[in-house]
Amino acid sequence: MSHFLFERHHNLLQQAVKACATRGYWSPFPEAPSPRAYGETANDDGKAAFEARLNRPFGLSQAATAGQVGKEVSPYGFELGITYPKPELDRLFAAMQPAAVGWRKAGPEAWVGVSLEILHRLNQRSFEMAYAVMHTTGQAFMMAFQAGGPHAQDRGLEAVAYAWEELRRIPNGAYWEKPQGKHDPIKMKKKYTIVPRGIGLVIGCCTFPTWNGYPGLFASLATGNAVVVKPHPGAILPLAITVEVAREVLLEAGFDPDVVTLASNDPSERMASTLALRPEVRLIDFTGSSQNGTWLERNAHQAQVFTEKAGVNQIIIDSTDDFKGMVRNIAFSLTLYSGQMCTAPQNIYIPKDGIVTPEGHFSFNQVAAAIGDSIVKLTADPAKAVEVLGAIQNVGVIERIEQARAIGKVVVDSQTLAHPQFPEARIRTPLLLKMNSVDESKIMQEFFGPISFAIATNDTAHSIAIAEKGVREHGALTLSAYSTNDAVLEQIQDAAERAGVALSINLTGAVFVNQSAAFSDYHGTGANPAANAALSDSAFVANRFRVVQSRTHV
Amino acid sequence: MSHFLFERHHNLLQQAVKACATRGYWSPFPEAPSPRAYGETANDDGKAAFEARLNRPFGLSQAATAGQVGKEVSPYGFELGITYPKPELDRLFAAMQPAAVGWRKAGPEAWVGVSLEILHRLNQRSFEMAYAVMHTTGQAFMMAFQAGGPHAQDRGLEAVAYAWEELRRIPNGAYWEKPQGKHDPIKMKKKYTIVPRGIGLVIGCCTFPTWNGYPGLFASLATGNAVVVKPHPGAILPLAITVEVAREVLLEAGFDPDVVTLASNDPSERMASTLALRPEVRLIDFTGSSQNGTWLERNAHQAQVFTEKAGVNQIIIDSTDDFKGMVRNIAFSLTLYSGQMCTAPQNIYIPKDGIVTPEGHFSFNQVAAAIGDSIVKLTADPAKAVEVLGAIQNVGVIERIEQARAIGKVVVDSQTLAHPQFPEARIRTPLLLKMNSVDESKIMQEFFGPISFAIATNDTAHSIAIAEKGVREHGALTLSAYSTNDAVLEQIQDAAERAGVALSINLTGAVFVNQSAAFSDYHGTGANPAANAALSDSAFVANRFRVVQSRTHV
């Protein structure tokens, strides 16, 4: 059965491997939530499936449960009322042990075939997933569909493709014949068995539970490891559905479904740190705060730890040949999902003497004001605005907006909007502040949410220096730059390479610095404090398995 | 120049890449110290070059020196009298900074081309290196030549080949065109720049300074990192020559030679731990004690840490169809370089009721005695014995032999032999003890040196269980097994896979469990406490560099 699955998805795998190597645009999972791609009734069916989940226990066959947990609240203003099995950890790991043995022995084609089938079925569930992601993360429907569904599936597939590329490079065996001059050669046969590390732990976040969770989940699974998925207590449902699908495929393929399990907890409990120190856990994939990520890196010594943490994303404005396009693009980047993206910009560096554009010189204040105006325009119509803004995931973000106001001078204040469909939804427009000079003590911390700073620098060289230092010391997932001057762009490119951050140059159209496309954009570099790994590359997968060799004379 | 070097060695690189994938026998560097391979005068020249090094400062152009250090003593009984530049660390790293920038910008073909040229020139210096290795490690000449020269060069080349395989998979750029239905597609061009982690630190050992040092050195160098080589104070010369050659090649290729530097210290000073915590150091390759290796893993948070530490290597004897061959093979394994190999066996498990052989039943005592007799025979003629035994690297090993005597019943005692050529040489034959039952508190620590235990177990199942537990808890680089029973061999294979250790089966001829051949045998698995990495595989190289991308609209 599992061999059948490998054959079934072999063509997809080959395409994915090729896409990783060439890095042009490619996606096998349609990103448009259209009836043509997903079927006439897909939206209605997905919505109904989501609604059927509400106000009841989430059925999951897994062993070792000790009651039910779950207190998810939709950022659109209602309790989901879903409970999930709470695991008793000793028994959970005891149940996973024999499941992991069967999985280990199945070998690379089974691991990859099952992983690809899970992704295929997740794709079919993209509408249900979209509603689950929307009502846990607060993303607007379109983003919830795309980032929570096909784009997350792309990222999962990408990890499987990288895993396969490393797995297939290990031969099953070898014949070794060493010449001995006039004597007979020494002849040996060797066998190479790929063995997984053990159990992988995926620690999910509350904003992109699938997009950030799938790379680690599928990288571990496709390299033969059993996996415990530990969702953020605020966004359990998307990963619970994922685990449900994974278990269904495992069972059908003849495996013990406890190869993939869910470990849910209530917001009041701590579970991740306990799980992370279990001796059975040998791989950890974490998305969350710098504090927790750094703790894992320094304390979970028994495991390989892959972290995506916080950072301060920055934009350097030097000059532009499309002022309106630049301003609109930046404003949209700040507005999209209310800045609750790990890739959203925060610090915008503008020379204090202003910039040159085709429309003439714009002062620092004019540039800041233009970005502010563009935000206002984007969010003027609440019905349209909420489709970009989504809702605020948690009250912590609301509090952060309140606190941030004191830091600079308000260019555009954050507004509360009423959602036409969900009157209780937490909707906020972006807060844009300006600072007339660089004050590192204020700007070099992450203000996660719709909070950004227009910061006056001495000149572009100063902007570059501040940005490079910011990346090195505080981490960043993105750096964006606007300049018409090739020499300046070269300096910025150099700074990005030195500091180790992905750079977007002169984005004035339909691509935003927040966006990272699987198979083409590396998400994170692993070279600055915001993340110790990139999604995805060889380093993300190659150490999730080991090779045990045996040799004997022929 | 560096591009020329890449072209020059391109064919060698392609062969090495292929060898890593197919894992049959391959070596480009002749292992026989023969005039035909290395030239009529190669031995004399190498010896003269070594002797010319003695009793004077080692000339090295590197910056930031603060006096001279070095107190190496040949295990064959004379002081080398060589001193090396002692680095002033702040100045050393300051000097390496600009060197590292030039190296980073040179790119993968330059990194790999220069690395291959260094290996090529090291091969030409194999005789000089042999004497340097012999008179620091105590290895006999033949082993010093092979393991210190061509086999170490093989391991270095293997690391370069793996590095190249990962580097070449990153395209320089990509064209990304995303369809937009009826609208024009979005078109972007992307650039991917490979950037090194920073500075690599290689911490050498005193027994195989080049064999164990080259994989990390070349893996870091070939991925664009500058490297500080920190030899063990007891075996500086082999790595000093290596650094000298590397600097010579770098200079000729137009690079600042401070891309590769030497950091030597006297035995009374501590330097490795200070170097390891330098913020500039982002990669550490360590060979040495478990205590120091674990300390690095847990404290050098700023770096990727690759360790090879101590372990307890084990042999399971169940049955054999070649008793004499088995006994001779094991005795040789214990005698070779006086057991001072990280791969040398220590614990030999034999069922208390003995084993079945073609010559009939042999009791536990008879098996132990036969191994002992074989050791005696192998070491009976001092002139021949010293060519297998080599000398004892340091007095710590001598003391360990004395202490070990108390642990079990002596089967064969360790003898002091006189070296015919070097009267002051520290020569000891193996000590073989027997224990009539398993006492984990005694046998589950590494007795590095010519110390081994014949241990009576209840039966082979007990032997397997003890061996598996030993690997899991204490680590091992090798496991060896003798059985004529396929079902037993399958159980042992299973145990090896569960515990994560390389297995050799029924070695009765000219291959010994101690030996690990580049391009075919993975040295270490990275899956048990003896080592957190394998030499070499993708995981050993893939995280030594990162990718910085930039993107802009077309």
From TrEMBL, chains A, B:
SUPFAM superfamilies in the cross-refs: ALDH-like
Keyword Endoplasmic reticulum: no
Gene3D superfamilies registered for this protein in UniProt: Aldehyde Dehydrogenase, Chain A, domain 1, Aldehyde Dehydrogenase, Chain A, domain 2
Pfam families reported in the protein's UniProt record: Aldedh (PF00171)
Transmembrane segments: none
CDD domains named among the record's database cross-references: ALDH_PAD-PaaZ (cd07127)
Aldehyde dehydrogenase domain residues: 88-501
Name the record gives this protein: Phenylacetic acid degradation protein PaaN
